[in-house]
Fold this sequence. Notes:
This protein is an alpha+beta fold.
Amino acid sequence: MAKRTSSFNPSTVLPPKAPRQSQEITQIGRTRVDAYAWMKYIPPSGSRTLDGLPPALHTHLQSEMAYATEVLRPLHADIQWFLDRLTDHAPTSSAPPRPGIAANSWRYTSEMPTGESHRIFSRHPAQGQAQPLLDEAERARGHAYYRATDHQASPDDHYFAWAEDLVGNDRHRICVLDMMTGDIRTLVESDAYGYGGFVFSPSSQSVFWIWRDAHSRPTRLYRTSIECGDTTLIYPVSYMPAGTKAPMVWYGGENIAASGGKLNGMISFTEVADRFEVEGVARQDKTGLLVSPAVKSSFDVLKQRIKGQ
């Protein structure tokens, strides 16, 4: 390919300027002003399309696309050259089928029917009829909003899973299809992190998934069994090393509330609650010194004396 130089002159083609429309947004206990929040649009149902956008947003995006066309116009010949080279190497209809993405060489596909906004997922054996797996339009029926993501097959080709959002707040539930029986079950009811937020275990017997807290922050990693639904917290981990004297608080491998610890015994109630009262983390079974049999009776006597009894 011959070397070409761009004739684009930035002084002759100016980018569109988005208008500022101040809007207050409160998240994670803080309020900020976002002048471009109007550019985030979620339709009441279905998927976003250019024609379905609010007029102001539609006009601005049209302007941005026109600007991009002008900026890239001097490179049109180069773009076409690369496109031709890629097309030359593309597989033809006579080429052997692409290997399946799972152990048994199934090939997984999705298609968007004409005029529809939801996909249909199927899998194809090396020979024989395709097996329908998921029709998103069926799942969306009866919901004002529906979006699914992270569709994937288990390593052993037994299960097919996806995360779906029924509200539009990116807090998903995780659904699993048994491809042998056709049964669909909701493995995780809510608060799962979508868009790369879950994966099958190598054994195909469980799913690892990320949980979102009340502020929509991804803060925990869980493992849920597909067979029985039992859920185990994987991270964060709460533990107490051997020989540790109670009372004290350990979190993430660090002593945060004890004499000589990070805060040298001084810690607020809220800080203890934030670290110690973690939902799903088992409490330590080590008994505090003041309630141990060796000193409990003496401690009870001391309490009575303090009370003047």
